[in-house]
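Let's do one together. I've listed all components of the complex below, 692 residues spread over two lines.
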Amino acid sequence: MADEEKRLEEVILTRLVRLNAKIQGVVVGLIAGIGLFVATNWLVLKGGKAVGRHLSLLGQFFIGYSVTFSGSLLGFAYAFVCGYIIGYSVARIYNWIADLKEGKS
Amino acid sequence: MDSNRVVVIGGGPAGLTAAYQLAKLGRPATVLEKHHIVGGLARTEDYKGFGFDIGGHRFFTKVEEVNRMWQEVLGEDFLRRPRLSRIYYNRRFFYYPLRPVNALIGLGLWKSLLIVLSYLKWQIFPHPREETFEQWVTNRFGRRLFQTFFKTYTEKVWGIPCSELRAEWAAQRIRGLSLKTALLSMFLKPNRTIKTLIDEFHYPRLGPGMMWERVKSEIERSHGTVKLNSEVVSIQREGDFLRRIVVSNRGHQEIVEGSAFISSIPIGEFLKKLDPPPPPRALDAAEGLRYRDLLVVCLILGRPRLFPDNWIYVHEPEVRVGRIQNYKNWSPAMVPDSSKTSLGLEYFCTRGDDLWRMSDTELLEQGKRELARIGLAREEDVEDGCVLRIPYAYPVYDAGYRANLALVREFVEGLKNFQTIGRNGLHRYNNQDHAMLTGMMAARNLVFGERNDLWSVNTDQEYHEEALIDGKALEEAFSRIFLKLDRTAFGVAAGLVSGVLLFLVTLGVVIKGGDLIGPTLQLLRYYFPGYTVSPAGSVIGLLYGLITGFIGGWLFAFLRNAAMFLYLTRSYRKAQRGLLRRFFDYT
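Okay, and this is what the predicted structure of the assembly comes out as:
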């Protein structure tokens, strides 16, 4: 038991965590997607003369995106994909470097 | 006598459980018990119809097979009883486990404030090394709380100053003070049944002895033998094999032969009885194993009700009694006359010391006086009483015990047809349930040829809050959650992704072209001097993205690790405090 404790402490204090790339991709994707969905609809509900002048500039990168309810759905999809790619890439690169540091590859 | 029989030395929980299991598996055994009743340290002594439990045995376990055996043997006589215990200190009673408001009222505002200040002081300036029990508790609770609630009782129990008691003892005894428990406590709420069992416990209607008398009957019904008043005189061996035991039964000597032997008597005593004797270094080590003994002053009082507790911890240094059991509150059936109450005043001592040498009459008088002094009863309320002397009640974890035990164990493990079990057989501060578990394992080793390590069964095993979780799976799970995030690796990863992203976005806008290229993206130049939405600017953007992404990622990993460390430390401390609140349950 004492050995088990010690081993657990050693593991926690010395080893590096590995990230699950797919999960991190989904998490970042969801955060980005929901963020853009909420931000778009917030401006839509707020209304006014020119709805979401600045946010609509995203349409330059996300083709078809506009500050409307249907645009928020499309924006969710775009942002999710972008977020997924970013989260997934960060995790894969991180894991690769962590492996190098721990001498596993 | 059947020379192929299993011989069990000691009719306590461990020995009887082993014999009971053997009988169930079709290998009846002969149990040798030196007392006139079975149960060992968990026997119930009878005095004029009143039952006296030695030490108070709560039947509480997380070992399912032990629980099954209790239920199986006791059936409807296995009562569920409410628990109330308090600490008596400075002429006041404090609920135990400690309740903050009750403690605050009992100690007074000024003393409570001093305790808090002392706690803060020792949190900021702890003992750099935790070698003694005193340092260990002070670092976690502060010196004032240590002196108030820990010092006197612990010293009464162990008979040595807390400054000489090793920190290791506390760490071993309070099993739950581990990283594993702390981590578990973050995810697992103590389930309701376990929580309830801390406030309640099971107890045989007529005390723990009832359990062991029934087990004895079951053993005998299955063709086993339980020989009472049978004290082992010598254990004869031939090389690495035990062959026969010379037993003295009321002056008559008898030889008991067997093919396999299990013993729960103090391991040091076992070695001393071997013939031929073991090597001198093993014998010397056996001599070095120390025990704490117990005196129970049993009193019968002519009052129907004295106090509501099952037991009271007496921390008051002015009296020598350490704990007081109120047997009627354990089970009403322990007292044959409902107009009377029976108490057990426990005095922790060492054979040969002044307490042990006192006569029964002196001890009874002292008990009466101290009871009156505490204010639980008047001297004249005591109508009758007797004294129980219990040697080898607690194995002592002193500075030399580990080395001595290792030598003893080395010799004992060389005996081919022998297993040692139970609290004193293993010199482990096991409770009844774990003692029983060693008996069960020994029986399985014998019948099925299993290789259960009896020395590893102890209070480290599953207990109060801890759930049954496979160690490897746990380690695997923890290693996925709590490991460090490498700052550099995460910084580089975040930097690379940010840099490439900015590079691609800039280049995309440049390729798209138009009258005014990327007016909004251009705004980044306020933060990234020299950046423009142009092919050259995309390369500069790549560099800026790399740098800022690295800084952001590095900081994120640093803060995440720091937060995780603080969270772990806090949870660990919280788990420690929670367990220390119930410290005396383990003592």
